[in-house]
Amino acid sequence: MPLSGRKSISNIRKAKQHVKNSNHVWNLPGRSGIVFHSVCIVFFVICTIVMIFRIMAYHSYGNLAGQAASVTQIESAQVTVNGETKPCSLPTKLKNLDPGTPVEVTFTLNNASNDTWMQIRTAFAPVTVYENGKKVYELGSKDTRPSFMKDPGTMIQFIQVKEQGEVEITLHYTSPTSRNFLTVSAPLISNQAGLLRYDSQKLEYVMGESFVLLIGGLLLAGISVFIIHLIHEGVILLCIGVFTAITGLWGISNCDLVLFFLNDPSLWYIVSYVCFFSILIPLEMFLEEYVHFHFRKLLQSLHYALCIMVPLTVMLQLTGTVMFSQSVRIYQCLLPASILAFTVGVIWEAARYRSRPAGQMIPGMVILSLSTIAELFNYSGSLEYDSSFYYLFGTGIFCLYMCFVGAVQVRRSYEDRRKAHELERQLTLMNQEIIEQKKYQDMVLSHERQLRRLRHDYRHQITVLQEFARNGETEELSAYLSEMMKAIPQNSDIRYTQNIAVNAVIAYYASQAKKKGVQTDIDLQLAATLSMDMEQSLCVVFGNLLENACEAIDRLDRGDNGAADKGGEQKRFIRLSAVEHQGNLIIHMENSMDGKIRKWGRFYISSKRQEVGIGLSSISNIAEMHGGDAEFHGENGVFVSDVYMELFPEDPQKYELQRDFS
């Protein structure tokens, strides 16, 4: 046994024992460990973000002086519309208004402090604030927004009440041009710190949920881009990530608290509606990619309709023809209807066609549908809609669930693809084995025919030899014997091992390497008789090792920075040895390479397909299946492969169960 082979196998065994010992104490096995750590990380992130937002509510906010005071909400006021004044409770919604209708809201308050501030909130309606008949502030005027926005976005402003004693506040609204109603919010009275604390405590959970969705979606989308480079099914995770990120960004831009981070109502108006219009696109793509519905034409029709509607809606807003606040009515019906239709379709697909992916999606889609219905009731029953807690909460649960399901699906797809490649490779090796065995049999038959012919001519040749000997014609006798020697068939077949199946595979790749001028050194000590399963496994192992070596040498021939000897020429060699030792087969191989090894975690990246390599992974799986292990590394222009496996397992039944499970 080569010394380098013993050393490598020893290192593999030590590393394997070290991993086994460390896993025994700290790590949970397999999928359970992944689920446990994922739940812990998600719980930690959510709690941390919520905690940060709760702490912000008690922050001094820089130049916002003083302790946070209690907040007083103005609950009633005098409302004047078209010259008619009547008392109203706040907040209120004034309906059936013509575009641009002036509306006045008047109330009084007693101010006994020089640090009294008033929070004014308005949505899509400009407002001018008067204090005792004196104009003190104006919100949403035309010069504060782009020309394509007929109405301003949602605005929040802190305005100081400077007058002392009884103060009359008048809010002069101009009703929106894009809708026939005006929502009048209840003004809040406190100091600045108190108002900001009130808003933070009211909206912290919505803002926290939205940030979690946005950050998580962006991270998932970024990771999935790399996964797509390795396997196409990573598109599933990309769609989930984009859907999650868009939902999170929509929740942030739709939350009033965002105006305290960046007070640009027009920007958040655009972001909020564009995200809302786009939410369905990645969700539909995810469902189509994951479930593979039998009624795909309907989904494709919806997909193309959305892809046309969203840019068209943006163009109409950009030209000032139709405001987002008008177009949103279509999407407010389309979004819940589509989600409910998706849920029904998933249930139908699972029940009618026994679709496993559809069955896995049912819990997530039911949660998303219930949260959408709850949000519809919340929206229809609210006078002023300032958060989307139910939908965001349901979407968060849906995305967490689908991330796990999608990751499992990607893993399963990769395993199926790996097994398909492995079966294809085994079929190729079997075909090569059949071809080599046929060549060997043809050669044996040819030798037998020649031997029969020689036996037939044997008596005539003996007679000639006797005649030469009797006459003392030694030169003629020697020449005739030489001709007879040439006529004897020569065995040109190289036998690397006595096992016919394994020898056929090795002979094929060795001949391919020799044709390319590769120096081959093959020394195998292998039993002639092996079990059928072991023969197949060894054919795959040796075939993968030699095929990878030939491909690496092909890259050297293309001039890819190969290893060079002292003369400057590239070394092109394959050295393969195998020996039986105490019931184990120990394989050691070295081959030249171009010096470029790319890995993703513990996987090697194939230079042929630019994805996770199947060959080395197959070798490792076969070695583990036979109670062994494999190790690969490359340095100084040489790739080294060490594999050991049990030729004769002590417990055949245990081995068979392990093989069937794998």
TrEMBL record:
Keywords: Membrane, Transmembrane, Transmembrane helix. The chain crosses the membrane at residues 34-53, 210-228, 235-261, 267-286, 298-316, 328-348, 360-377, 389-410. The keyword Coiled coil does not apply. It comes from the Bacteria. InterPro entries: HATPase_C_sf (IPR036890), NatK-like_C (IPR032834). It holds the Pfam family HATPase_c_5. GO terms for molecular function: identical protein binding. Residues 537-644 form the Sensor histidine kinase NatK-like C-terminal domain. The keyword Zinc does not apply. This is GHKL domain-containing protein. It comes from Stecheria intestinalis.
